[in-house]
Specification:
By secondary structure, the protein is of the alpha/beta class. The chain is built from 7 helices and 6 strands; from the N terminus they run E-H-E-H-H-E-E-H-E-H-H-E-H. Bound molecules: flavin mononucleotide. The site of flavin mononucleotide has 20 residues, from helix 1, strand 3 and strand 5.
Length: 187
């Protein structure tokens, strides 16, 4: 069975740096035989969690009827999820946070593999706040009993900057290949 990889793109810039790296990861995964689907979150109506706790009580989907509903079966079916985001205000984007908050009681998102792609305008992982996003994803994966297979991050600002960084594009391609190939021991 080919591995099923879901990519969640968290930037409002559909052709921005994190999206370009996510697309390159998709190419790597496809070349290694995986099935890949990419979702551009910015275009979706995903409302914030309202803390009703029903999902936690039944271990299931959120009851809010919005564009999150079709994402639940895609998340459940995915072997691996790539989270791609720009750094906004020293962590990942609100678009991605809205989506992840809605996984609160959703048990089928446990035991997945994850790939992380982050881009930031500042010069390094610490001053940019990229480290905060990584810390959140690591904590999240511990809670979900998931595994982070790889993290690609880089200092990039304007749309198109990523094309001047073939090393980052290669890292993203390799991440896609690894996610397609590596067995998920947690499942
Ligand atoms: C609202 C906003 C907030 C930002 N906050 C940060 C930040 O805290 N740290 C940083 O290094 N870059 C910050 N940036 C720059 C972006 O992270 C950077 O341009 C990134 O490459 C954009 O990714 P994208 O092309 O995928 O949209 C910010 C940009 C915007 C528009």
């Amino acid at each position: 069975m080919p591995k099923n990889i879901l990519i969640l793109k968290g930037s409002p810039r559909e052709r921005g740096n994190s999206a370009a790296l996510a697309d390159r990861a998709a190419q790597g995964a496809l070349a290694a035989g995986a099935q890949v689907e990419s979702i551009y979150l910015h275009g979706l109506d995903i409302r914030p969690c309202d803390a009703c706790e029903l999902c936690a009580e039944n271990g299931n989907w959120c009851i809010i009827e919005d564009d999150m509903l079709p994402l639940y079966p895609k998340l459940a079916a995915a072997d691996a999820v790539i989270l791609a985001s720009p750094i906004y205000w020293f962590t990942f984007s609100a678009q991605l946070k809205l989506c992840i908050d809605r996984w609160y009681g959703f048990q089928e998102v446990a035991h997945k593999q994850f790939g992380i792609i982050l881009t930031y305008g500042d010069t390094d992982l610490y001053t940019s706040g990229g480290i905060n996003a990584i810390h959140t994803f690591e904590t999240m994966c511990r809670f979900l009993k998931g595994e982070i297979v790889g993290i690609v991050h880089g200092s990039l600002s304007n749309v198109g900057d990523v094309e001047k960084h073939p090393e980052l594009l290669q890292q993203a391609y390799d991440l896609g290949q690894r996610l397609a190939a590596e067995k998920n021991d947690g499942r």
